[in-house]
Each structure stands twice: as structure tokens, then as C-alpha cells.
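Structural prep section.
Before we set up the soaks we want a predicted structure of the protein with 2-oxoglutaric acid in place, mainly to decide which crystallisation condition to try first. Input record follows.
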Amino acid sequence: MERREPPVVPVERLSGVTRERFLSYIYPQRKPVVLKGMELGACTTKWTVDYLSQAVGSKEVKIHVSAVPQMDFLSKNFVYRTLPFDVFVQRAAEVNHKEYFLSEDEKYYLRSVGEDVRKDIADIRKQFPTLAEDVQIPEYFEKEQFFSSVFRISSAGLQLWTHYDVMDNFLIQVTGKKRVALYSPQDAPYLYLSGTKSEVLDVDNPDLEKYPLFVKARRYQCFLEAGDVLFIPALWFHNVISEEFGVALNVFWKHLPADCYDKNDTYGNKDPTAASRAIQILDRALKTLEELPEEYRDFYARRMVLRIQEKAYRNDYG
Ligand SMILES: O=C(O)CCC(=O)C(=O)O
Ligand SMILES: [Fe+2]
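Run finished without errors. Recording the C-alpha cells verbatim:
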């Protein structure tokens, strides 16, 4: 039987959005939007494979290498390897490799990190100072809100699993094309989450026997081209396919007051401390319910769910 495709909501595309317009009308809506024609500096014309190789040189980078396009965090079908940056960029830009780790047509993905991977936050100005000069990051938020700037380079075809980050984000697509599918934080119940990631890897052809509720998730979608900036509000899920080899830079900034965030968060994906604490307390409550026989546990668990709905849900959500 033919399956009916669920509807896709196009992400709004807006041109020439000033800082004032963004902050007054767009940012408060907490919805993704593609900003076209932003002033991004020389990077959009300068960042060829040869220029990047030469500008950065042989500095070592840790990358994801995957034999298949769709990376899977559950089965871990990818490996981490280290390459000199110039070698990595050349390889990521080619489809078939003379030298490779897993297979001739393996795919590569770089997500830049800080000097000390555990403690330092990715900042293109620190790890790739020569390239940072070529980028003009849209200053649509206050300097104190800045969290990180992450350099991302991807082979054609590579798909990054659906996940959320806890910071607001400008995903600046400098070169290459991407398809981004997004889901609202409201649709979390339909995404089968494992931490910050969705277990539904194949968003185009989901296994509905395993993930029946996924059909209820409303998919937003946009296609990014060189020079586009996608605003991804904190907690919005995103799934990214690189349709071409491409270079991107994403800037994370804090939406909440600084003291709400986990001080040990280097990736921008640790839940705000109040949320982590609440989840811990919930886990303790669940443990406590185990002291009761099933009939009682079920009754009190349902009452607790009702209490959570009544006290903590917002009332303008569908
Ligand atoms: O475009 C990509 O490679 C992934 C983007 C992403 O996950 C992000 O900017 O948070
Ligand atoms: Fe992300």
C-alpha cells in the first residue's frame, strides 16, 4: 500500500533582515527562519578547497568517518579519526578516495572543538584565526550571550541525526547546499528521544512499526544555499543532509541568563541545570514508586503525570 506523505511546512525565508527587525519581530517568535542576503564577509567567495587547505595547513583535526551516508549513533556505524586539516578538506570534497579508512567512498564530517576537547569551547577565532578574518558573524545578540562558533565541514551526502541543542543558533552555510528538516520542541513526544538525539534516523522513510508516533511530528523544512543563515531556536530539533560538499559555521548564543546553563557544557547541548536537576528528582520519584505494587504504582504515577500537566505545561500549546 502506498503511504501518504505527511505534510511539510516550509521554513520562512526572509531577505535583508536588520538586527532591529530580527530582535523585535522574529527572535521572540521562537521559530526557525532562513535569513537571506546577510553580510557574511569574504568567506562566501574565498572559501574554496584549495584556499582552506592552504590557509589552515596541516593542523590536525578529529573527524567523523562513515562508510554510509546516514550516520547512526545507536549502532555507531562511524569512527573517529585524525587527519591533517588540508588532507581532510581535500578528501571531504572528493567522492572517491585513493586513501581511506573504511571504504573508497566514505564520508567525512568535521565539527570543530576547542583546544582541550573537554574544557574548551569551539571558537573559530581561536582554532582557525586565519579563516575567522574572512567571516563577518551577524551581531544580532549581545557579546556576553556568545557561547561558541563551530566550524562544520561535510562530505556530499552525509546525514546528521536529528538532535536538539540548548543554545540559540545561527547556522551559516558558507558554501554548498543542505537540506534541513526541523521539528518543534512540542513534538518531542513523537521523536523517540535518546538524550538529545532522536532514534528515528531515517526521517524520510521511518520504520513506523517501531516508531508509530513519528507520523505525528510536524516536519518543517528548508534548503540552504551558500550565503544562507538558518536561525535554529534552542530546543528545536534538526536533521541535516549535505547535498553537496560544504562548509558551514554555526554560532551558538545564550537565550537564557548565563547562570541557567551548565558550566561544564562544551558543546551547547547540556540541558539547563534546573532541567537536569528536575529530571534527577523525577528519577528518584520513579525509584520511590517501585516500593509500591503495580496497581498502586500505576495509580500514583498517573496522578503524578496529571500534576505535571496541570502545574508545568504551558496552556497555549496544542
Ligand atoms: O549543518 C550541520 O552540519 C549541522 C548543524 C548543527 O547541528 C548545528 O548547527 O547545531
Ligand atoms: Fe545542532
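Observations: The chain has a mean pLDDT of 95.
Flagged for discussion at group meeting.
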